[in-house]
Amino acid sequence: MRDSRPQSLDTLFNDNSAGALRNVQQRAVALLKLNRAVKALLPAPLQPWCRVANFRQGILILETGNASWMMRLRYEQSSLLSALRAEILPSLAAIDIRINPSLMTEMAIKTAKEEINQEVMADPARPARKLSAESAAQLESLAERSPEKLKAKLKRLAALAGERDTNETSRNKKR
Predict the structure, then answer these.
(1) Which domains are present in the chain?
(2) Each residue of 45-62: pLDDT tens digit?
(3) Which InterPro entries has this protein been placed in (predicted)?
(4) Residues 6+ apart with CB under 8 A from 43
(5) Total-model pTM
C-alpha cells in the first residue's frame, strides 16, 4: 500500500529523490532546451509557428499551426535533421511533423495582442474618443423605438456624450 501522507513539494523535486515528479520535471526541462535549439536552427519566419512536442525512440515530433507552415517546415526538414544530429542529438533518426490547430490560435491571439500594444505605444497621446451631441440624439431617438433591454443600454450609451472620455463607462466608475 502506498504512503498517502501529505509530502512537501520540495521533497518531490529534490535532487536526491528518484520520484516520478523529478523525472517529469527533467523531461520537461530537456524538451524546453530542445525546443530552443530547434527554433534557433529554423528560419526566422518559421520560428513562432513551430514547437517541439516530444522526442521518443529517436523520433523528434514537431507541431505546427496549419498545413502551409507544415509544408514550409518540410522544406527545412533535411537541413534541420542533419544540424540536430551534428550538434545536439546524434541518436535522432527522423522528424515527424504534425498539425496542432491550437498552436495557430495561440499565435493568432499573441500576434493580435502585440499589434494592439504596438499601436498604443506608437501614439500614446492619441486623443480620447468622444461621443458627439448629434450621435447622442440619434441614440436617444433609436432608444425610444427599441425594446426595454436595448432601450436602457442605448440610453446609457447616449449619456456618455456629456462625459469627457468614452473609454470609461459608468459601470467602471467608482460611485
Answers:
(1) 12-107 (3.30.300.20), 127-169 (no CATH)
(2) 888 889 999 999 999 999
(3) DciA-like (IPR007922)
(4) 76
(5) 0.57
